[in-house]
């Protein structure tokens, strides 16, 4: 009988212990619930790649001017046609042309999406992007560490150099027309209003390039990567000419989304190139000197082809790092280009810089 009661007694004791423990547990205060803390929001994404509107306007004006002048027809029929082509070819201020060239080359460089994506990946926060833009602005070498920077530079160089060579070649065609046209009587007539014509050409050297607002939307799409320019080129290794380096700087800042209307004033420091500007000033001086002594219409054709077109194209090509073809030896100077013309231009070079 004893063996039967012992388990029962143990069970009663266990129940009592459990009841006491449960009462104690229920009497304890409940711990405060753990509040779930939401993770911090991700940093805001970079703005889309692109250029400030004034730079797009410069690039559009440059592109339109270059296309118009490069397509000048050598089939002149009158002195009025020559005067009109001369006015168009002379219608640029050197610094404005350089600004447009750099902006246009930057748009071309932005077609390399690996270059763009590498920069955007490195600029993961607004603070990083702002710092990177500052480094790039003051030291173009910083850009070279990013993958495909050489490919982007190749596109910029191609955009500048090939267009320059095309203008140079078109100028040579116009210059040869100055000889071929001399069998037409009107070409030997004296230029109408010579003094006024020269004054108008000199004034054009002080004015911006004629605007081409209709071409801005296409360049805007190209800069953002929606519809890149149809330019292909092999990668270009450093060192780069200042013209190409500045275009690459601008493209890198644009890729970060830091080339905005608000930052325009800071970016103007890389929209210049002393070498290109000096070369273009010399082309202008030679044009003015050529027109000062030109009398018949065919000499104005020569001045247009040689100085307004070929000299300008050579400046763009050389400062992009490309070689310009040598002048054919069979071409001789016309009465519009005496040796004193070049000497006078050299003497006044620094006065116009």
List SSEs in N-to-C order: HHHHHHHHHHHHHH
Q: What is the overall shape? A: elongated
pLDDT < 50 runs, ≥5 residues? 332-353
Strand content: under 5%
Helical stretch count? 14
Please outline the major beta sheet: none
Query: Whole-number radius of gyration?
Result: 35 Å
Name the structural class: mainly alpha
Estimate percent helicity.
55-70%
Number of strands: 0
Could you give the distance between the termini?
Answer: 125 Å
Give the domain tally.
1
Overall pLDDT level? 87
Description:
The longest helix is centred in the middle third of the chain and has 32 residues. This protein has one domain. Helix content is 61%, strand content 0%. The C terminus is likely disordered. Helix 2 crosses helix 4. It is built from 14 helices and no strands. By secondary structure, it is an all-alpha fold.
List keywords for this structure.
disordered C terminus, mainly alpha, 353 residues, elongated
Task: Summarize the topology.
Elements: H1 2-27, H2 53-70, H3 79-89, H4 94-109, H5 113-122, H6 126-138, H7 149-180, H8 194-204, H9 216-223, H10 242-255, H11 264-267, H12 274-293, H13 297-319, H14 339-347
Helix pairs in contact: 2-4, 3-13, 4-7, 4-9, 4-10, 4-12, 6-10, 7-10, 7-13, 8-12, 12-13, 12-14
Tell me briefly what this model is.
It contains 14 helices and no strands.
């Amino acid at each position: 009988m004893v063996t039967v009661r012992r388990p029962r007694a143990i069970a009663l004791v266990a129940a009592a212990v459990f009841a006491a423990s449960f009462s104690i547990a229920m009497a304890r205060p409940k711990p405060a619930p753990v509040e779930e803390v939401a993770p911090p929001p991700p940093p805001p994404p970079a703005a889309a790649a692109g250029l400030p509107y004034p730079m797009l306007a410069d690039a559009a004006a440059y592109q339109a001017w270059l296309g118009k002048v490069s397509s000048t027809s050598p089939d002149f029929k009158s002195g009025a046609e020559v005067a009109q082509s001369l006015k168009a070819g002379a219608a640029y201020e050197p610094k404005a042309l350089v600004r447009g060239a750099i902006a246009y080359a930057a748009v071309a460089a932005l077609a390399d999406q690996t270059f763009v994506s590498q920069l955007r990946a490195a600029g993961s926060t607004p603070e990083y992007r702002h710092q990177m833009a500052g480094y790039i602005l003051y030291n173009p070498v910083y850009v070279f560490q990013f993958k495909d920077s050489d490919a982007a530079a190749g596109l910029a160089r191609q955009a500048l150099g090939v267009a320059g060579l095309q203008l140079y070649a078109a100028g040579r065609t116009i210059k040869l027309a100055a000889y071929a046209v001399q069998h037409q009587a009107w070409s030997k007539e004296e230029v109408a209003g010579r003094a006024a014509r020269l004054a108008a050409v000199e004034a054009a050297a002080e004015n911006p390039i004629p605007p081409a607002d209709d071409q801005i939307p296409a360049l805007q799409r190209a800069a953002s990567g929606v519809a890149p320019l149809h330019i292909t080129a092999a990668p270009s290794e450093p060192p780069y000419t200042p013209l190409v380096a500045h275009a690459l700087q601008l493209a890198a800042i644009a890729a970060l989304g830091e080339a905005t209307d608000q930052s325009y004033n800071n970016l103007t420091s890389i929209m210049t190139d002393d070498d290109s500007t000096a070369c273009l000033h010399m082309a202008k001086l030679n044009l003015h000197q050529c027109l000062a002594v030109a009398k018949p219409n065919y000499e104005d054709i020569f001045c247009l082809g040689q100085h307004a077109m070929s000299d300008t194209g050579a400046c763009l090509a050389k400062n992009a790092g490309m070689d310009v073809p040598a002048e054919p030896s069979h071409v001789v100077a016309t009465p519009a280009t005496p040796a004193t013309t070049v000497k006078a231009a050299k003497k006044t070079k620094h006065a116009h810089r």
